[in-house]
């Protein structure tokens, strides 16, 4: 057919479809594996030496060992962390003439880095809201036995920046049934971690818990501390942290409110690049 035979509205529709398709195609991520297999889709995250990759032809995301990837191409921005503690917002693309290197373009600066030195990838956008993720769900349980009625609510959020990250969650359970008192349980957490140079970090955290079954109106714990990662690679991490924690407890039976301030110190070890197994242990000591 000739172009002048297509109505103007159809031309505009075809143009919009073409531009949208081109945009979607341009946003696709591509990775190449050691066996020369190529996957096209969306990088979800790299964490603990495993890359999560989403494709349009699989219901489940692929879980790929990072050392199996030889090439990566993407036009999107990521928060990238290297094994020397450096964090930045950058694009990630393999160097054409050197598959073991990736080109990191952060703002006006561009440099090459060994692909094996990347230990964390988190896709983000260029604006504030693209770095924010939220999730919320509700659940209702109704059973005839004891006339049980239960409502559950879960909320979580996360914000990732170049030098810091923050997360929060809130879980609530309310239940009522014949023969026993109503039950209310609420627990929540807010934390913020600021990453310093050379594997140091500062952390602020608040924990909350209320549980009628424990006669606990509210337990609030506020922590301030810092720590250091002795080792943080694609094979393992080993770190330590210390700080102070202040706890306040109030009760539903009018018992006296309790308060305490304690120092704490902890160690954390996680070995995850050992096939299908991982080894993790954490120990925290409160004075």
Question: Can you walk through the features of this model?
Answer:
The protein is 7% helix and 66% strand. It has 287 residues and is mostly beta strands. The strands form 3 sheets. It has a 9-stranded antiparallel beta sheet, with no helix packed on it. Strands 4-3-2-1-5 form a 5-stranded antiparallel beta sheet, with no helix packed on it. Strands 9-8-7-6-10 form a 5-stranded antiparallel beta sheet, with no helix packed on it. A hairpin with a 4-residue loop joins strand 15 and strand 16. The longest helix is centred in the first third of the chain and has 19 residues. About 4% of the residues have low confidence.
Total helices: the number is: 1
Mean pLDDT: 86
How can the largest sheet be summarized? 9 strands, antiparallel
Oligomer description: single chain
Q: Approximately how much helix is present in the residues?
A: under 10%
Distance between the termini: 83 Å
Q: Low-confidence parts, pLDDT < 50 over ≥5 residues?
A: 16-26
Overall body shape: globular
| Strand order in the largest sheet | 11-12-13-14-15-16-17-18-19
Gyration radius over CA: 25 Å
Strand content: over 45%
